[in-house]
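Input chain follows. Return structure tokens only.
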Amino acid sequence: MGIRQKLFFINVRKDEIDIKKLLLACCIIVLCVGVIGYVGVSKRNILTDNKTPNVQMPNPFVDVKDIKEAISVAGFEISVPEKILNYKMGIIQAVKGDMIQVFYNNDKDEILVRKAIGTEDVSGDYQEYEKVEKVKIGNFDVTLKSKKDKIYLANWTDGKYSFSVSSKNGIDKAQMKKVTELKQMPVK
């Protein structure tokens, strides 16, 4: 190797070393900025958390022991059976002056029946469904929401109260019709 080639090789090695040092310095700077940014955000969150009280909306539902107590809390009548299809009555809850909800359970599914004052949708289920249809069941126009061949939600109003029946895993149309007809019993 000639002197020129050796000098060129030394210069290339020196340039490679300078580039490596420059890249290392850049990485260290980026790391430091990231750490400082993280610590700053963490401190702000800690300060914010200490200054702002943790306020959550209280659960408006009151667990009650039976339908009679639910009627007393809500201030209106509801008529529900002990069993719906092969589902047994479970938890009963009421919102003072507003709503009653009754959970029915079996080994695989849960049905929730709700009645509330007013004409708005009280289901609490705002999912998008593949199919939404209005059908006449008894004296009411009932909105059924389904995916594939399962009905997950039925809701309707009588002009004074809103009703909903929902199933976690979905039930077939005939079963939902039976449940909905049960809920359309006259109000006392």
